[in-house]
């Protein structure tokens, strides 16, 4: 295990000033489910001096409704998100995604912001948050800035946050009552496994069954979390038919190959992504 | 780099401790090395196998995924804390023996502690609920069937006997 000093600040203000003082010599720890592994494998830069614990901070542990928005403190754990009534009602796919992360033990510790800033391409909460158009509130000292979630990812396991910044909150608009959402994932075993493919969809149709909103994102199949705009465009404004849904599934698989290239797993993943996508779309859309 | 030991106040199995520990110790190391609680096992060390499961502030967690300092002020239950003052076994421990749910025994403490949390929140779980509750605990020898039977039997014992679940 790498050496470091451990600090347990009493509030967020103290955390912010420690980050400003120590910059890249400091790392935050919340659930620790990724960081502790990295520390044990001595993968953190050797200039590491302090680990700042934020797992106990009540200021970061909340889920609340504010106007048309849901606001989630960065320290909220996966189990809190999975079981929260507001999230079940207004963003059910996020509840689904959180309930499928890791294992009960991991969900009891891991935080939503940890899932984001670790930036694993297989992160389960991320595609769900992307189709919700989530924004991050990022804090540095007393200053705050906002960023669209998608914009913070710059590479696998890389986010463009500065070392003196921290994620304070994630927020998004509540889904309209008539919108439907779905999160699904493919794993090799039923528990404690990384997603091979995960898919998140939000959709809404009007009275004539015309698709008036469709957002698709996926994890584990592209280097960066992204929306599948070309696939979305096939459906937007249309009344979905079985044929159109097939084509949309194919388009997602096609976009995956454009972004990820032909890999050893492509022969398997291409048909699987397509059919998982078709199934997900059939769950959220009324088809002619 | 010179590191400074940290003071750690924790309540483990209903006993208060004040310890001075290295900042880069995990809670798992503190429990095993400083307190001699060897019922807490280290399996994978990366939060996947659940052998190091303990109950911390009412939740089952992997003690290999918590830095010592993060446990400051916490209330912790390990397998050693389930036994009564006269050495009497907890219904979960009895049930695991009675159904043959223990073979090598390495996963047993974690299995029992995940089950304890389940039974505290849900005194009459279904098989599916038991499976979900122990899905973060791997057994590589006995197989899960006897373990599920053990949890069902323990639930029954506790409902009948009016046993209050510790912690």
Automatic annotation (TrEMBL), chain A:
It comes from the Bacteria. InterPro entries: CO_DH_flav_C, CO_DH_flav_C_dom_sf, Diverse_Substr_Oxidored, FAD-bd_PCMH, FAD-bd_PCMH-like_sf, FAD-bd_PCMH_sub1, FAD-bd_PCMH_sub2, Mopterin_DH_FAD-bd. PROSITE patterns: FAD_PCMH. Pfam families: CO_deh_flav_C, FAD_binding_5. The keyword Transmembrane helix does not apply. Keywords: FAD, Flavoprotein, Oxidoreductase. This is Molybdopterin dehydrogenase FAD-binding protein.
UniProtKB/TrEMBL annotation, chain B:
GO terms for molecular function: 2 iron, 2 sulfur cluster binding; metal ion binding; oxidoreductase activity. The keyword Isomerase does not apply. Keywords: 2Fe-2S, Iron, Iron-sulfur, Metal-binding, Oxidoreductase. It comes from the Bacteria. Pfam families: Fer2, Fer2_2. Residues 6-82 form the 2Fe-2S ferredoxin-type domain. SUPFAM superfamilies: 2Fe-2S ferredoxin-like, CO dehydrogenase ISP C-domain like. This is (2Fe-2S)-binding domain protein. It comes from candidate division TA06 bacterium 34_109.
């Amino acid at each position: 295990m790498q050496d470091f000093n451990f600090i347990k600040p009493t509030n967020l203000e103290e955390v912010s000033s420690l980050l400003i003082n120590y910059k890249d010599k400091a790392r935050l720890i919340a659930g620790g489910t990724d960081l502790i592994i990295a520390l044990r494998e001595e993968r953190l830069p050797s200039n590491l001096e302090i680990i700042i614990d934020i797992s106990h901070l009540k200021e970061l542990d909340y889920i609340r409704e504010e106007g048309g928005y849901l606001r989630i403190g960065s320290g909220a754990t996966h189990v809190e998100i999975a079981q929260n009534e507001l999230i079940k009602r207004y963003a059910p796919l996020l509840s689904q995604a959180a309930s499928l992360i890791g294992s009960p033990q991991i969900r009891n510790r891991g935080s939503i912001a940890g899932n984001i800033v670790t930036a694993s391409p297989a992160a389960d909460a991320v595609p769900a948050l992307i189709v919700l158009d989530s924004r991050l509130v990022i804090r540095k000292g007393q200053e705050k800035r906002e960023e669209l979630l998608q914009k913070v990812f710059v590479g696998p396991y890389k986010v463009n946050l500065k070392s003196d910044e921290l994620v304070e909150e994630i927020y998004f608009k509540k889904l309209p009552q008539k919108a439907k959402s779905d999160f699904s994932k493919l794993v090799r075993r039923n528990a404690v496994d990384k997603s091979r493919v995960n898919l998140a969809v939000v959709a809404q149709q009007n009275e004539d069954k015309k698709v008036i909103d469709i957002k698709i994102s996926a994890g584990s199949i592209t280097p960066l979390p992204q929306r599948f705009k070309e696939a979305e465009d096939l459906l937007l404004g249309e009344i979905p038919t079985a044929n159109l849904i097939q084509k949309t599934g194919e388009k997602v698989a096609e976009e995956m190959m454009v972004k990820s290239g032909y890999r050893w797993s492509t022969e398997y993943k291409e048909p699987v992504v397509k059919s998982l996508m078709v199934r997900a779309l059939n769950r959220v859309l009324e088809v002619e | 780099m010179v590191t400074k030991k940290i003071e750690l106040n924790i309540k483990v199995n209903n006993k208060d401790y004040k310890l001075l520990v290295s900042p880069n110790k995990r809670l798992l190391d503190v429990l095993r090395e400083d307190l001699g609680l060897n019922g807490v096992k280290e399996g994978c060390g990366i939060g996947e196998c659940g052998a190091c499961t303990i109950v911390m502030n009412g939740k089952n967690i992997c003690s290999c995924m918590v830095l010592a300092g993060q446990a400051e002020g916490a209330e912790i239950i390990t397998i050693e804390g389930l036994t009564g003052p006269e050495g009497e076994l907890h219904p979960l421990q009895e049930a695991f023996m009675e159904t043959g749910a223990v073979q090598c025994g390495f996963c047993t403490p974690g299995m029992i502690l995940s089950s304890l949390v389940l039974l505290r929140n849900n005194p009459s779980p279904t098989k599916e609920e038991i499976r979900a509750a122990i899905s973060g605990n791997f057994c590589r020898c006995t197989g899960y069937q006897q373990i599920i039977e053990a949890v069902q039997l323990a639930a029954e014992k506790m409902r009948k006997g009016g046993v209050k679940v510790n912690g």
